[in-house]
Amino acid sequence: MSASSDQQDLGFAPMFDQPIAYMQRTREWYLALGYDNPYTWAHYTDVPFHALGKPLSAATVTLITTAAPYQEGKGPQGPGAPYNAAAKFYEVYSLPTGCDPDLRISHVAIDRKHTSMEDSRTWFPLAALRESLQEGRVGRLAARFHGAPTNRSQRHTLAVDCAEILRRCLEDRVDAAILVPNCPVCHQTVSLLARHLEAHGIATVIMGCAKDVVEYCGVPRFLFSDFPLGNGAGRPHDSESQRRTLALALQVLESAPGPRATVQNPQRWCDDPDWKLDYCNAARVSPAELQVLREEAESARRLARGMREASQASGRAAGLDPAAPQNKTLG
């Protein structure tokens, strides 16, 4: 009997039906595109942990997102939009939790083949969080939520963005933060941010899909959903999935026994796991397609670099001291 038939007889899932190795996948992808300086991902052994010092029903909670506010005139940003470097943002932003913001994810490398980008509640769970507030599960929503720039430079994220988001959370007297990333680098960004917040007395939980990136960095609490990138808050157009996903994240936030607590969402994306083989997989792209993607990647990299340098120049003119960029390969 062959190994594959034996696995079928035993009811095993396909060997590839496991969390996607995004760090390896993106390394191989960028090598295929012609970039020979692989990205160095953030990695720590020690992980800060701050236990929520009060019941969640009495706590003030905020959201932190890597989604970008819609920018008119910056190209396609809606459902089905291609990767759009022009829609990126490079400074922390904050908006009131009492509004319904138009947030998009066209500026990051999500899974565009297997998700529609139609339902923002899959990457920004404010509506589900409001329901938890009405049910008494959460004590209070902070006055603002915050947008974290997806910087490839860990130095800039740590020195500038983490410090600024912490300052704003302290101003709002936040007890806990829910962080929702989208692309692989987004997952690293919010992992660094979660570590920083925890070290300064704010409990955190990440709702994400790139398990290897988050666990390699080392975070206090992580709710892993084995969904395509861009769906860390539940399946699109499925309010029950979104409600259950947030409820599980709140449970992890409240009851995690210590750092590096990962809980896997029991929901599945679909019955066929073949979607896991597509993301950044050069073996599934023809040479002609790869050449087109190589040209698009280089164009986007130049555009993003120009925008980043302009943002840094603006910061220096305003008397700020942006940290020097590093690890530019994924830009």
TrEMBL record:
This is Glycine reductase. It comes from Candidimonas nitroreducens. Residues 301-331 are annotated as: Disordered.
